[in-house]
Amino acid sequence: MIAAVLGVVIGLLFTFWNFAGYAGFMALDALTPGFGGLVAGVWLLGGVLGGLIIRKPGAALFVELLAAVVSMLLGSQWAVETVYSGIAQGLGAELILLLGRYRRFGVGTAVLAGIGAALFAWTLELFLSGNIEMSTQFLVIYLVSLVVSGAVLAGLTGWALTRALARTGALDRFAAGREVRGLA
Amino acid sequence: MTGVNPLALCVAAVLYSLPLLTSVDIVSAGAALGIWLVLFTALGITPATIVKRTWPLLLAAPLSGLSMLLYAEPGGTVHLTWWLVTVSDNSIELALAITVRVLAIGVPTLVALVGIDPTRLADALAQIARLPARFVLGALAAVRLAGVLAADHRSLAQARRARGLSDTRSPAGGLALAFALLVTAMRRGTMLATAMEARAFGSGERTWARESRLTRRDAVVVAAALGVALAAVGLALATGTFRLVGSGGGA
Amino acid sequence: MSAPGTSRPARIVASGWGWRHASRRHPAVAGLDLVIEPGERVLLLGPSGAGKSTLLAGLAGILGDTEDGVETGALTLDGVPAAHQRGRAGLVLQDPEANTILPVLGDDVAFGCENLAVPRDEIWRRVTRSLDAVGLRHPLDRPTAHLSGGERQRLAIAGVLAMSPGLLLLDEPTANLDHDGAAEVRRAVAQTSTTLVVVDHRVDEWLGLVDRVVVLEPAGGLIADGPPDAVFARAGSALEAAGVWVPGSRPHVPRTPPLPRPSSPDQPPPRSPVGPGPLSPASPSPADPPLLTAAGVAVGHGGSAVREDLDLEVRAGESLVVTGPNGVGKTTFAFALAGLTAPLAGEVRASAQLARGTRSPHPHRWRARQLLTRIGTVFQRPEHQFVTRSVREELAVGPRLVRAREQSALVDELLERLRLTHLAQAHPYTLSGGEQRRLSVATVLATAPRVLVLDEPTFGQDRTTWTELAGLVAAHVDAGGAAVSVTHDEDYVRVLGDRRFHLEAAPLESQSAAQEVRV
Ligand SMILES: Nc1ncnc2c1ncn2[C@@H]1O[C@H](COP(=O)(O)OP(=O)(O)OP(=O)(O)O)[C@@H](O)[C@H]1O
Ligand SMILES: Nc1ncnc2c1ncn2[C@@H]1O[C@H](COP(=O)(O)OP(=O)(O)OP(=O)(O)O)[C@@H](O)[C@H]1O
Ligand SMILES: [Mg+2]
Ligand SMILES: [Mg+2]
């Protein structure tokens, strides 16, 4: 249930970022090749946050996907492609958590999950946005900035947000919340 | 789009977009977009409605093209180079194709999907697609919260003012408020889960008050969507303009 | 599992039952032994925090698992543990807002039936029947977001009635309702024949409807149990001492009488003060201008007015009550008066004395911090105004902002007076309904504002807290402050209604319906 709420809230955040972030993305992208990836991390947040808070298999994917669906239904500029991206990005984060066997939820895992989501996003966009036709330099720069952004804006931010939320007591129903508050 | 099952619309959107995604060429994309504009006019969907539902897309499409124009793998005559920017025949062709492709995929799907009734979509997802009720209804109930969030935002701002904390105009105040809103949303989620349990949610088999069914009409919509995509791609193949994504440039 | 028809009334057995919330050291309920026979109607009473809501949640099977708390003893419905029988009991939660689940009215009522696998045709029959029963006559596709507080309460009850549960559990179902709304809810309940457990502090109204009264003891066990007449006759004064409301007894709160005011032609002369009452130089004199004046004020939401042409003066040393049916705009008006929202038309003006040190005579233009010592607001929904993680921090917020001296002593005193000391470290959101209400009032009193605006300060309060809260407001007013209280509570009006501002449910056209009545 929290997963669903998280998904919807993040979907709203996406919608906001679809305008604010996209402006930055495009400004960076038009001026410099590939640096637009630097702001994209926010779109990867859903998977990280979902995974860290709920700690169950599938949570990262579900949250990111639902967020994408919500943002599409509100009229995202990428239409159905939003949903494909959501699936890929969620899977990226999910995979990292799976590798940690859903037992590690520290800052390291968070950053890796952000990077995982970034890698998957990059791969999908090769086809989805036809990025595969781009020059190699562009693709490398885009990959690096996407990974950095995923690590910081999705990974670190996601981790910090989880802790901050836990401290407010809003997550007491989850292990993630009780751990931080020293209740478990 | 009333009367069409929302699930059919979603399936149609997917089936329609996949073939088009295989190619970056202006013929398939242009043809598909053209067919839709004609169809929409025939269905009485006004240009105003289309613009209202798709305006972010209309802004984004040329920008995607611009990025392609400047940084795509060079091919054919090179017109301009500056640092990493290379404008070549290939990149011009790609830029046009991508711009039109973004529109061709985005416009019809947004026109069809924006404003879908989430309740009907949930009904369809659970009854026809047989997704687990827990997920579908959880998501549906959460969507209602999105509406409540606006009211929450207002009362949180008032509460913070009453408690002397912040005048929410400042950036710091704004951030604090945004975070408070997130916390409220989480709490509401927990409360909602309790309320749903209090009405026997998750106690076993359940029925659905409203039946969701697929009709012939839905089949027509799905077939039409797939048909348009295949026709467009077919046209590109026939005219030899089809260009598989990643097949490399160099005309 | 549950038959789709009407289900049999359930039998409740609690043997040595108890529950401790995971984040608490002491159990909320302990050692409870209780048998309720099928079809019995029970009024469950007990002081605030005694564990009433916890018991109802236990009966509904929604307390959760071992991660959420520790269970002792056994709590069964028809011999099967309640936790395994979700749906056998239907519960209306204490927080009225928490009960709404789906976006439109009809679906929301149908939700419970669907979960019980009731066949489709039967669902819609039940939906119409239960909406009728609670007197909610909107179209089924009406968005639930557009319902007023009272309508929402009815919707919640309809949703549970439609499940036709073997056990109906109602947690303060009428606390936020006006008189008519409450009566309608009780009528709806009276038509059912299942086992019923209802928690409600308005004892008198339920007497004709229940055949048994059970009073929970905070430490565990029962203070009293039996037919209403017998219980109140035998244990009446003991119950009163324990903080439980008893039929017919009116709480008493000492007041120094309000100051005489110059009488205006359309008002009866004010009561004359009993005895001279020493007036210190700081005390307000009747000649002082009103602290707040609302003139031609219109208030509303999103630019559309709910009320127009409201005129009101708030005077030092006077306690004013605002009354009126659900949804007439009392809260909306109170917010404008308190400087939290700008009026749509007209103006709310503070006296020069109250506005001293600020940049405007209009409270909504003041800084948040300037409001603290001038106008304090208690929200209708306590949860809305909590901003920290513990009861103690919550109380410290205001004093810290206004740089009060002796902050921790002040906080300690407030904790003590409102009996929250044992909860100082608890998270505000985990408090019981009554505890939350006390905390929200205490946070506002902590900065000693000159004007208090209180939205339903006494709803859902036990007798002890009620007296305490009313006493605090009375003391504030008698010391020269002003109070404006929105309330449905006639006892409160009797004690603190120096003047009454009544909003009549009226269409916008004939807006002269707001009238002042002297009590
Ligand atoms: N979710 C929770 N987590 C921790 N403690 C809780 C929780 N809910 C209730 N409590 C505590 O359990 C005790 C009993 O609370 P409960 O809500 O059952 O009281 P109540 O009798 O309904 O009181 P009121 O009349 O004020 O609503 C209180 O001390 C309360 O603070
Ligand atoms: N956030 C909102 N947006 C739009 N309309 C609202 C909002 N809040 C309240 N209303 C409407 O404004 C009217 C007045 O609401 P208000 O909360 O002031 O009533 P009230 O007199 O305090 O009622 P109650 O006794 O139920 O608390 C109602 O019709 C209500 O439906
Ligand atoms: Mg309670
Ligand atoms: Mg109100």
UniProtKB/TrEMBL annotation, chain A:
Keyword GTP-binding: no
Cross-referenced InterPro entries: ABC_thiamin-permease_prd
UniProt xrefs under Pfam families: ABC_cobalt
Keywords per UniProt: Membrane, Transmembrane, Transmembrane helix
Transmembrane segments: 5-28, 34-54, 61-80, 105-127, 139-161
Domain of life the protein comes from: Bacteria
Record-given protein name: Substrate-specific component YkoE of thiamin-regulated ECF transporter for HydroxyMethylPyrimidine
Species in which this protein is naturally found: Brevibacterium yomogidense
Automatic annotation (TrEMBL), chain B:
Gene Ontology CC, one term: plasma membrane
Membrane topology field: Multi-pass membrane protein
Listed CDD domains: EcfT (cd16914)
Top-level taxon of the source organism: Bacteria
Annotated TM spans: 33-50, 94-116, 128-150, 219-238
Localization: Membrane
Chief site of localization: membrane
Keyword Aminoacyl-tRNA synthetase part of the UniProt annotation: no
Keywords from the named record: Cell membrane, Membrane, Transmembrane, Transmembrane helix
Protein name according to UniProt: Transmembrane component YkoC of energizing module of thiamin-regulated ECF transporter for HydroxyMethylPyrimidine
Organism for this UniProt entry: Brevibacterium yomogidense
Automatic annotation (TrEMBL), chain C:
GO molecular function, one term: ATPase-coupled transmembrane transporter activity
Record CDD domains: ABC_cobalt_CbiO_domain1
Pro residues bias: start-end ranges: 254-289
Domain ABC transporter: 7-244, 292-519
One of the record's GO cellular component terms: ATP-binding cassette (ABC) transporter complex
Pfam families found in the cross-reference section: ABC_tran
Protein name: Duplicated ATPase component YkoD of energizing module of thiamin-regulated ECF transporter for HydroxyMethylPyrimidine
Organism: Brevibacterium yomogidense
